[in-house]
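Issue 218. Parser rejects a valid record. Input:
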Amino acid sequence: MHFAEPLPLQSGAILSGYDLVIETYGKLNADKSNAVLVCHALNASHHVAGPNPDDPKDIGWWDNMIGPGKPVDTDHLFVIGVNNLGSCFGSTGPMSINPASGKPYGADFPVITVEDWVNTQARLADKLGIRKFAAVMGGSLGGMQALAWSIQFPKRLAHCVIIASTPKLSAQNIAFNEVARNAILSDPDFHGGNYYEHGVVPKRGLRLARMVGHITYLSDDDMAEKFGRELQRPDGESHDYRFSFDVEFEVESYLRHQGDKFSTYFDANTYLLITRALDYFDPSRRYEGSLNRALAEVQAKFLVVSFSTDWRFPPNRSREIVESLLSNKSEVSYAEIDAPHGHDAFLLDDARYHNLIRAYFEQMLEAKS
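Output the parser choked on:
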């Protein structure tokens, strides 16, 4: 979907026009009151649920959550997935052609923020004739976007669902992002972000960035259960150490596989942009560090969910949001789910988690009817 109206960004830059790729599920009702916006995390996209028409093996990243009869039931709800500005799955980003130069934007693509994304999503809603979302929801970075929606457009969403998220990154989280970015920036094939012109991809940097990131998505217990200290050996081969720096342990093989796969489909400039958007998100910054003041004007009802072993965005960060909402007398439900899977738990099957989301949306629909 093309947007010709210039978009002012928080950085002061202006995009003269841009495209957003979207995917929808279910049917929009007559008064357009059953729309749910799903905001994606770092490496996801608009393809939220079901098989990709162009590749039936490509199943949407939240397919266990969204669809007919699922917790977010598209028999009753109209779900919109949008690929954010700056991403590499069809919406305008560093790989797109810069109309001013006739070449890919590359390093010239402006730095973007969560708030910029929310502004583009609001314009999308305008184009679709949706004045108010029944809910805006997301996990991780998607949860940050949902929170930003409640602040920037308080009258345009009835419910805000924030899962495995945080009101701002800790210093440790920013540090992880910096290590990952440095892996990309120091790759000789990066060429200052203009690697498209050289016909190369900074795969080494992308692989390492993904490996670092992936460690933070899993809990210690989950990694111990999946891999332990098992050696990576073909059947019948000796289980003695090889005394080399090649892959020895299964966890090493797993991380290299994840890094290799990521480097084949994700764009390095996009990785830099999205991790920086993560770093910059802090709605309390405009209010002298007060999240209470940042959330003072919200009108939505909230569901906030965290997972006990998520050390990337631990439960205490979700509780910060809940406490600020309560201090403002906002309506909020909170659940901390004891799950072993770390940050990735928001994407995985867990009956307690899914039943919670199902019950929340069923209650929302009952109240609306």
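Fixed in the parser; the record now loads. The mean pLDDT is 96.
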